[in-house]
Amino acid sequence: MPDATVTAATIRPQEAAHFAKLANDWWDPKGSSAMLHRMNPVRLQFLREAVDGNWGGDPEGVKPLAGKRALDVGCGAGLLAEPLARLGAEVTGVDAAEENVAVARAHAEGSGLTIDYRHGELAALGLGQFDLVTAMEVLEHVVDKRAFLTELAKHLAPGGVMVLSTPNRTPQSRLLMVGLAEAVGAIPRGTHHWDDFVTPDELKDLLGGVGLEMGAARGLTYSPLKGLHLSDDLSLDYLVTAAAA
């Protein structure tokens, strides 16, 4: 389940339209974005570990991103941007679908959060650099992955950290994430195109090509006992950090 669409230069227009149709349903934990709501705590666990590891923060601290600028690319209606703001960051969210940005702005205002949401192409927005750059469940929807990662790298400040999540291109993901999940409605039909999934080795090479070093990948997987959780199983979906090499 993608977190959003990205810039007009890298995403297929039909995908932007697909996700725009989901905008008004984004914050319903039982709606079309239910899977994202379930994934979010696990993603935040990984992100918190990355933040504390990068800046040597206190794992018990409530505002580990205080004084930091965070950029969430493909922000959708703000499911990740809002927690980043609560962790103390000055947050900017970017999305290609204007409908998503409108919903994100309204929800943040209703939640008493100040988040700078932008609609359009990241390269054209003149946003500068950020201590934290995130793009969750976005890379698989990008046409030119190298161009997209190049742009993310340009927005990463020296000493900063990037956090990415994306499905792995495996037989398991084809069966479960594209076949079964979309068939039963756990993920909206037409969300994923398996051929666009990226393996960890491919992502490592892509990041290396834009001057970033990838950290160890962690899998996002499911079991009946634990539910969705971080593991060493990368067969479905995985998360990585990246920093200047």
Folded structure, characterized:
There is one protein chain. Helix content is 33%, strand content 23%. The radius of gyration is 16 Å and the shape is globular. The chain is α/β, with parallel strands linked by helices and 245 residues long. It has one domain (13-244): Rossmann fold (3-Layer(aba) Sandwich). Strands 1, 2, 3, 4, 5, 6, 7, 8 and 9 form a nine-stranded mixed beta sheet that branches. The model has no long low-confidence stretch (mean pLDDT 88). It has helices at 13-20, 34-55, 81-86, 98-110, 145-154, 171-183, 200-209; strands at 69-73, 90-95, 116-119, 130-136, 156-167, 212-214, 218-223, 227-231, 237-244. The protein has seven helices and nine strands.
The profile of the biggest β sheet is: 9 strands, mixed
Output the CATH homologous superfamily: Vaccinia Virus protein VP39
Order of helices and strands: HHEHEHEEHEHHEEEE
DSSP E strands, number: 9
Strand percentage, roughly?
A: 15-25%
Distance between the termini: 30 Å
* Helix/strand structural class: alpha/beta
CATH topology: Rossmann fold
Task: Kindly state the percentage of residues in helix.
Answer: 25-40%
Low-confidence parts: none
Mean pLDDT: 88
The top-level CATH class is Alpha Beta
